[in-house]
Design brief:
hydrolase, single chain, Carbon-nitrogen hydrolase family protein, six-stranded mixed beta sheet, Nit1/2_C-N_Hydrolase, hydrolase activity, alpha+beta
Length: 269
């Protein structure tokens, strides 16, 4: 598929799974009416809180994913859940997991966040995601009729080697669902998204939480799509809602031909 229409759901997730699922359903329906092939949501789209994270984790065959499967089928679209807290049968910790569901309600890809947000900025941010979350280890691509997609989650954005690995595995578009804070987002979010797009000559789809969070922090929003030249081709307003963007794989191929830097990579010591 040379042209793909993407719906970006910029939401303000609370600590109420059912209400969050209702929001996801409503936005998916709106995006489907406008012709979206795929709808993507932010990190932790169905539950966002510093408390009771393990208690609210579910398996891949739990209520959250099963509900999303039904929404995908009903609207005949792909749904990328952003991420949810996935139970880990081997450990007391949970995974921060992205799931891509196709229009028939089947899971096509599962990605578990590799880089965990263990950051302390005095007076601003003090989080240690690894206290509750176990990191994944696999760079994940999926190929379907729309193309080759790569997966990442939030803090992964700061690690260019992951994006290069996804590109080397054929990714033409890479998802970045996130809960980027207002403090870091205002200075780093757009810069990092554009950098990853330019470096790898891919489309980057960054979908961020927006507004006050249950844990007393604020998310930056500014969900956007960046093209392979590094141009922001679509950007969300400062509010909860959705954004529709069209990406053109012919443009991507032309960009790579015009400036073939991916073929100029060299090994060095």
């Amino acid at each position: 598929m040379q042209k793909i229409r993407i719906g970006l759901g910029q939401i303000n997730t609370k600590d109420d799974i059912e209400k969050n699922l209702e929001t996801i359903q409503a936005i998916t329906e709106q995006c489907a009416v406008e012709g979206a092939n795929i709808v993507i949501f932010p990190e932790c789209s169905t539950y966002l809180s510093d408390e009771n994270m393990i208690e609210h984790a579910e398996s891949l065959d739990g209520n959250i994913i099963n509900t999303l499967k039904k929404i995908a089928q009903k609207n005949n679209v792909y749904i990328h859940n952003g991420s949810f807290l996935e139970k880990n049968e081997f450990d007391e910790k949970v995974y921060n997991t992205s799931v891509l569901i196709n229009p028939t309600g089947e899971i096509e890809a599962i990605y578990r966040k590799i880089h965990l947000f263990d950051v302390e900025i005095p007076g601003v941010v003090n989080e240690k995601e690894s206290d509750v979350v176990k990191n994944g280890h696999e760079a994940v691509n999926t190929i379907n009729e729309m193309g080759n997609f790569g997966f990442s989650i939030c803090y992964d954005l700061r690690f260019p080697e992951l994006f290069r690995r996804l590109t080397e595995k054929g990714a033409k578009l890479i998802f970045v669902p996130a809960a980027f804070t207002l403090y870091t987002g205002k200075d780093h979010w757009e810069v990092l998204l554009r950098s990853r797009a330019i470096e790898n000559q891919v489309y980057i789809v960054g979908v961020n939480q927006f507004g006050e969070r249950p844990i007393g922090k604020s998310s930056y929003g500014n969900s956007m799509v960046v093209d392979p030249w590094g141009v922001v081709i679509a950007r969300a307003q400062e509010k909860v809602g959705y954004l529709i963007a069209d990406v053109d794989m012919t443009y991507l191929e032309n960009t790579r031909k015009t400036l073939p830097c991916l073929t100029h990579k060299r090994d060095f010591i």
